[in-house]
Structure formats: structure tokens, C-alpha cells
Specification:
Layout lengths: L5 H14 L6 H8 L3 H13 L3 E4 L5 E4 L8 H7 L18 H25 L9 H10 L1
Antiparallel strand pairs: 1-2
GO molecular function: DNA-binding transcription factor activity
InterPro entries: Tscrpt_reg_Rrf2 (IPR000944), WH-like_DNA-bd_sf (IPR036388), WH_DNA-bd_sf (IPR036390)
Pfam families: Rrf2
């Protein structure tokens, strides 16, 4: 099963933007997270629509934060990306008439819903400036 790493990649970019006092190009961000600049532009456009970043065109253009990291939570970004379920595991419905499959699905669904609610609650309590701030700023001071 393939992991969805879009949230963690975007958080990586946003924390970098918080530490850099100039616009950053999609190409540079793509290098940071080992992906294609088109993927970065599509993803950043979602964040621009939600007013978390701005973009400027031209020679010195790029992406910048529209809000301080302290004003953005993990939940904000999760929601801006239009993420569905936190979990990539799913329930089966191949044998929907089978009472055992139904019982398994009910048990799994209840547990996954509980865990997801807890994670989303916690996401709402964590601002982006809290993401490893001590490590990040000591790293940036060493660079």
C-alpha cells in the first residue's frame, strides 16, 4: 500500500518558507521534497486559495507565507489540501452480504473513526511553528 506523503511534504515546505524571508520558486521547493515543480504548484495553489500562502510572478517571484507559522495548524493544512481520511487502509466490500465481513467492517470503522477524530483534534492543537522548532532553528543557525 502506497503512503500518502502530501501533508508531510507540504509541512516541510511551509516550515522552510517560515525560515526564509524571500519568495521561493516552485522549482526550489520541488528540489526540497524530491518531486516535480508542477506538483508543487498544484499543491501550493490549494494553500493560496485558503490564504496560507501568496505567490508572485517574475524574476524575483515565488511563494511566501501569507500568515505567520504560529497562526497555522496542522488541521488547517490538512483541510486546505482537501485530505480525506487520515488512514490509507480501507474496508472491504467485496462480499457485502457476508455477516463476518460486515462485523469486521463495523469494528474497523469504529476504531478508525475514533483514531481519526483524536488525530484531527490533536492536529488542531499543533501550530506549524511548533514543528521541531528547537531542531530547526539550531540547524538554520549552523548553516
Amino acid at each position: 500500500m502506497r503512503k500518502d506523503s502530501r501533508l508531510s511534504r507540504v509541512l516541510h515546505i511551509l516550515v522552510h518558507l517560515g525560515a526564509i524571508d524571500r519568495p521561493v520558486t516552485s522549482e526550489k521547493m520541488a528540489e526540497m521534497i524530491s518531486t516535480n515543480p508542477v506538483v508543487v504548484r498544484r499543491t501550493m495553489a490549494l494553500l493560496r486559495e485558503a490564504n496560507y500562502v501568496t505567490s508572485t510572478k517574475g524574476h524575483h517571484g515565488g511563494w511566501k507565507l501569507a500568515k505567520p507559522l504560529a497562526d497555522i495548524t496542522l488541521l488547517d493544512i490538512h483541510n486546505a489540501l482537501g485530505e480525506g481520511s487520515i488512514f490509507t487502509i480501507g474496508l472491504t466490500d467485496e462480499h457485502s452480504e457476508c455477516v463476518i465481513e460486515q462485523a469486521v467492517n463495523v469494528a474497523l470503522k469504529d476504531v478508525m473513526n475514533e483514531a481519526e477524530a483524536l488525530m484531527l483534534k490533536r492536529f488542531g492543537q499543533i501550530t506549524l511553528n511548533q514543528l521541531g522548532a528547537d531542531r530547526i532553528f539550531s540547524y538554520l543557525n549552523d548553516v
